[in-house]
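Why does this matter for the project? Reviewers at the last site visit asked to see concrete outputs rather than summary tables. In response, this paragraph embeds two records directly. Each consists of the residue sequence and, immediately after it, the corresponding structure tokens. Nothing has been edited or filtered.
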Amino acid sequence: INFANLDSETATARRQLMLATQILKHIDSDQPIRLLIAECERPLTIMSALYLAHKFGIADMIDISPLFETSYGLEHGEKVIDQLLQQQVFVDYVTTRGRLAIQTGFSDAGRFVGQVAANMAIERLQLKILRSLKARIGTHVDVLIFNTHGESLGRGGAQAPMAQRQAWLMTPYVRHVAAEMGIGLYHQSSFQGGDGYRLFGTPSLARATMRGLLAAELAPPPADCADDPFYQQTDFSLDLFLELKGWHETLLADPNYSDLIDLFGSNLLPPTGSRPTKRVLQAGNQRRGPSKIRAIAHNAILQQLGFLANVISGMGRAATVDFEEFVDIHQRSPRLRQCLDRVLTAKRLGSLNTVLAYCRLADPGFWVNRAYHGKQPRNQRALRRLATHLRARPRFRDIQQTVWSLRDDLVDLYRLSDVIGGQSVRATGDSRSQLDLLHAIRIAVIGDSLMTICRTPNIAESNQYSNEDILSLGLSLDFDSAADIIRSAFGPSAGIDGAAELTEVETYSSDTEGNFAAIEAEVLAPLAANKVLIDRITQMISAHYGAHG
């Protein structure tokens, strides 16, 4: 092939393999290329890639790496690999390469089954693949596992010592099992977003990070990790996993939860990166809920609403399946403590009262009550207008149902944390005062912005947009689009060609410009200033979660 073939090819898979061929041919032939297959769920997908690699003559220089991240992929990924290992052409391929390469997605898996259940599922998948490999072709082929994750709790990362961070991605038990089997296990992990700056921003930081990584990866797993009751009492660990996974799948399939995530869309988030917030899906593969948006956006929205449901929720309810056994095993199991510590760490940052406060912005009763008490005479018209607008578009009660469901689960988590001892996860006093202040200020600024939008004069019926459209945009925090409509409706027009040469005297233009100047001063300028403050608070809240990217 040549670059003309590459340029004219439209099929994505062929283009990727052709591009790999040209890179190996013209740029760098001494390093293999890793071909990632995202959301892999079928062996045929991998075999198709292998066929193309053979066709282009690069099968010996490419590692085809399926990424298991969907609920189906995590549950059936081992069967995908096992079926591949029954195909001689695939066995010959991995034998020639000397390795089986796979990838797991902690970040994306969290929007399918929750972060803690995803971690358990990924560990189970890694163990099953190791056993399948040994059973099918022996131990002469190594396993390369690339564990991708994000920078914060909701995407598989943690603000923790490097040893703890790596032990979450590749547990000591998986390392122990691979060593016992005699299979070479190579672990790779990613550093995304702000972690690139936080951990590698200076030479000294980079050296410290690398030393921590080497120490974590080269240290042998604890000799007694196989005796952990979490792995010995498999009925308990399986029941816990299935209950936790099922709880999150129910939550994520709930249209009320989707409404909560879509309360402000992605407008609380600054635009970052080159990829759209919503995933582009093939026809016939439509999804509802968080799986339709990218994991980064889903997690960031939960951060900004004040409660990482994808980490915190479900564990309390799952523990009640056998509460006494959970408490007993927790005392003796480093693995169970690792999982629960993750939940409790996220809870110390989270508050459902904060979520409910944001939801109240969509509650018509909230606005009409403020008008009723009459403490803001200047805003009476705006408050009543917001209430009327929201009564015609009811969604607060549905969103509220999700908050009650999350709160019901917290009752069990509070009971659990009280029984096992340690620091309380209930927010009291000054334990979360900075976060609470940031949220409170932002909610007040959002409320002020909505009342400011209500000061917009009535738009002519001939305009394609109405005042109700502007208010709807404001309630979704799309202040830029609202401002654009206001400018187009009331701003000075471009005028006609040759207007400057007209000699007839007129005063109409100055009157129009004066009207727009008032709108600019009373509506557009305050709205722009408020948006700057809202965006700044967004970044400050993200920093509390260690999410600097």
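We now turn to the second protein, recorded in exactly the same manner.
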Amino acid sequence: MNWIGIILPFIAVSLIGGCVGRPLLHSSPGPAEVADTHIRKPLQTIRPYNIAHRGSNGELPEETIAAYKRAVEEGADFIESDILASKDGVLICLHDLTLDNTTDVANHKQFANRKRSYQVQGLNITGWFVVDFTWEELKLLRVKQRFGFRDQQYNGKFSLITFEEFISVALHAKRVVGIYPEIKNPVFINQHVKWSDGKKFEDKFMETLKKYGYKGSYMSKEWLKQPIFIQSFAPTSLTYIANFTDLPKVLLIADPTTRTEDTNQSFFEITSNSYFNFIKKYVVGIGPWKDTILPSIDNHLSETGATDLVARAHAHGLQVHPYTFRNEYLFLNFNFNQDPYEEYDLWINKIKVDGLFTDFAGSLHNFQEWSSDKGN
């Protein structure tokens, strides 16, 4: 029998299949995927958290079911999302207030007249704003990759998702996976979206978490069952929700030129020791832009080395989860020789951060597994 003639077609099919990317998981979780919560592998808590920034968006379009499922598959401890609201008050996963950069809204002629200009944190922004679309309209759009240098083959294949759908990915995972949702642009959302019951964006955000059973302080039994960090750049949103939840919160910190959207405080104010003494009553950590910890000049790390931000935060009992780690050469300082493992090694083993926001959860997971095997 001619075994070669039989086998070669199968080899060819396998090779062709391997050229179009890894197979995607189902677009939405189903009952068959729900694992027994009593036997799920628990969250690891002995090494810095692997936080999948908008899902595995280095490969797949950000904030989609596919990107979040891929991140879970790749070993993320937490999946991260930005929560905004539609015109009719549905909470959705979307980073930008405008739809321009990550959806095909410009291709929908019926929405051509929806383009608007709004003031956002002192800037005049023009585009298709999420607050001008109902959820039914938003469901007509398809998501695309933000960066042109990333894989474009998945453009148009996925839709926007709701906060509840995002939560469902974590709850249906076969191991315990945490969520890391952000109360995004709360000042703008509260100005432009009104709920019939008179409640605020932050109220609706917390109602959703309560609906799905999220409760408990950091490291409590309840928290370990359904881990979560709530993040925001707006300090008053975090202090407000602290009135009715003990879920752990993280204050995000932008670059030194950006003031807080709600309190108009400078970077230097919110990173001072006196402010840390105040905010530690409400949050368990900070999430700073990584250049505020390790500055760079012309893509070279500053010769002055790391700032004292991590040390001071730790001295106040605050965790530090910097953002964002990306594998591509555009985002890696020359000092790391285009090797993301070198970057992870510096941040984890020398700077000693407590978690990392990454677009490549698989790379971070592989590094941590590899370094654990080496005894690091």
